[in-house]
Amino acid sequence: MYKRKDFPCKGDLVLGTVKEISNIMVKVELDEYEDAYGIIPIDEISHKRIKNVREVVDIGKKIVCLVMDSDPANRLATLSLKRVSEGQKKLKIYQYKREQTAYNLLLLLSEQENIPIETLHEEIVYKILSKGRLLYQVWEEAYIEGEAILEKYGIPKKYVNSLYRIIKEHFNVPKYVRKGYIEMYTLASDGIDRLKKVLLELKNIGLEVKYAGAPRYYFKLEHYNPKELDKTYRKMEEVVRSMAEHLEIEYEIVEE
User: Fold this and answer.
1) ∠ at Cα 137 (174, 176), nearest 5°?
2) Which structural domain, as residue segments, surrounds residue 151?
3) pLDDT digit string (tens) for 173-199?
4) What CATH code is carried by the domain that includes residue 59?
5) What is the pTM of this model?
């Protein structure tokens, strides 16, 4: 895994390995950064009163901390362990593992194209980091939007085709899903035609629903971006509502 040359700022979350423990502090090596360390004062270890620091941390343990103060010149940060929520901890660990997975694709590129990994650090990794992004974020964008994204982040053209192929073959971008069913009722003599009009309007905006037996129709919405997925869901709700009102149809949308 590469090491960042910059230094974390106040308010950042960092992943570290416990290196030393004393009566007044815990020293942590910052795993993501080159030659960087952090100090956790004893009163920033836990909200609870503890008799022994080793009840919470021990040598070699991986921990997620909040940067309270940053000293880039000396590559030293003041950290807090107790100010990190469980949710923040899980998210940071997920992001780190995701970045490791993304980095493995660079190792594959290095092997397949016989390029020193140090060269790829300089020509790909640090260019992406300088734009405020991580590898996995750029790989995800490229997977969804195409190889032009790689050039957008300054990756040299000589690497783009091979890297994009590796991303498409080996990188997984999960889709977000919302699914359920729509029930529609009408006592009108032309009720079937009215229901067909609603289904046609849904199809016109790119939504497919499957007939599951009157009066139920199943839907399944998928998108790589959860915000876009929510937009699609709201659009579906609006189409069904407006059409049902216009055609005098009773309906219910149930999400499973």
Assistant:
1) 25
2) 88-170
3) 989 999 999 999 999 999 999 999 999
4) 2.40.50.140
5) 0.78
